[in-house]
């Protein structure tokens, strides 16, 4: 029940932090592109830690701190390098690449709330959040973060 009470405020704070941190993370990665190698894994780890900690939350304040702030900071670190990599990799079909990325985010935005709602009703918030943490960490593309850079450890932008 706790998850439902703080969900609106938590998601609002999370989106606000994500959008407000984007200019900073993009500026840092544009200035120092070699940091892209680390922003993705650090962001993913931060998101996983925030979700895992939120599964132990007993108050709305704890939920806001873990999902609203910690997960948002991790999302900001994860979003910037993926967008910059997309810009680096696709020169000729950049519009198509951004369209596919946007469509994927839209599909996830439609499907995941129903999946999460069903999981929350069936298993409760603790198990759902812990399962989501495991799914994020064990996703088949997670190790690909280390292959997103060239052999010098830098993105295509700094080569």
SSE ordering: HHHHH
Number of strands: 0
How many domains, in number, for the residues?
Answer: 1
The proportion of residues forming helix, as a percent range, comes to over 70%
Overall mean pLDDT score? Answer: 82
Question: Could you name the CATH homologous superfamily?
Answer: MFS general substrate transporter like domains
The span between the termini is: 50 Å
Number of helices: 5
Percentage beta strand:
under 5%
CATH class: Mainly Alpha
CATH architecture: Up-down Bundle
Q: What is the makeup of the main sheet?
A: none
Structural class: mainly alpha
Any idea of the CATH topology?
Growth Hormone, Chain: A
| Overall morphology | globular
Q: List segments where confidence is low: pLDDT < 50 over at least 5 consecutive residues.
A: 150-159
Key descriptive features of the protein:
159 residues; mainly alpha; Growth Hormone, Chain: A; globular
How are the elements arranged and paired?
Blueprint: H1 2-31, H2 36-54, H3 60-89, H4 94-123, H5 125-137
Helix pairs in contact: 1-3, 2-3, 2-5, 4-5
Can you give a write-up of this model?
- The chain is mainly alpha-helical and 159 residues long.
- It has one domain (2-147): Growth Hormone, Chain: A (Up-down Bundle), CATH 1.20.1250.
- It contains five helices and no strands.
- It has helices at 2-31, 36-54, 60-89, 94-123, 125-137.
